[in-house]
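Sample intake sheet
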Amino acid sequence: MHPLFPEILPYSTRRIRVGGGHELYVEECGSPSGLPVLFVHGGPGAGCETYHRRFFDPNIYRIILFDQRGAGRSTPHASVEHNTTADLVADMEALRAELGIHRWVLFGGSWGSTLSLIYAETHPENVLGLILRGIFLCRPHEIAWFYQQGTSRVFPDFWQDFIQPIPEGERDDLLRAHHRRLMGDDEVARMASAKAWSLWEGRTANLHPHKEVTDFFGEPRVALALARIEAHYFLNDCFLAPNQILRDIHRIADIPGYIVHGRYDLICPLENAWELAHAWPLAQLEIVPEAGHSASEAGIIDALVQATISMPGRLGE
């Protein structure tokens, strides 16, 4: 089984000003002359973690990580102003130009898979290949599955903590109820909602409990950005047309890809990956038998690292 590559430090960090008053944190690791790969983090709003650098052989890849608008070390923190899917795609293009990259590989999980697919469908000429995990196609039934009824039936104990900040009379639309509090002026209510929202995601991400994951999602700064930005996106159907990703999948028909998905992913169910793989001719789907949603699970790590090892061969590098 493939582990992560050894810990590595960036050889370059910078901040890039983009539209709407946002400034993005960007770092590069590995080989400056290597195959460019962009790590596209999840959420939206989660930000990058140091272990995200370690899915790639630093002798082969030029590894680029960035925190999306409002997330991680980007500023302003937790901001939903001028923060849409189109803005993030434009930011990725600005980053590509800033770094002088002609074409790159995209590596994204969960919301990162969504944004990678939308970017690739918008700019297929700039994408060499895609490595995706925990597929999220941003359709209304997927959002309802996790935030209204679906995952709640498997984790009724954790669900009680998610709905606790919301009065019973508002629980018929939990997304809107949490959104009101997350965008409101009551700081106590805002933070209670953020903590409940983020911990619900952290507690359900792994097949087996993973303290480090739960601790990350429970950190107040992470929780606030994740909850506010996710609620903003999900209330607006992620600023996408109905079924946009599968509708436009023909645009990446000639781009090779790997899809890694945990059999027991209860945040983004396996049918999402199944539908994507059957619509995308050059995608290779690997279903990890003993895994949930998180990128930190051993089986998911193994499959993703194997994909990064195999990708240069598929590209003729």
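Comment: Strands lie at 12-17, 23-30, 35-40, 61-66, 104-109, 127-133, 257-262, 283-288. The chain has a mean pLDDT of 97.
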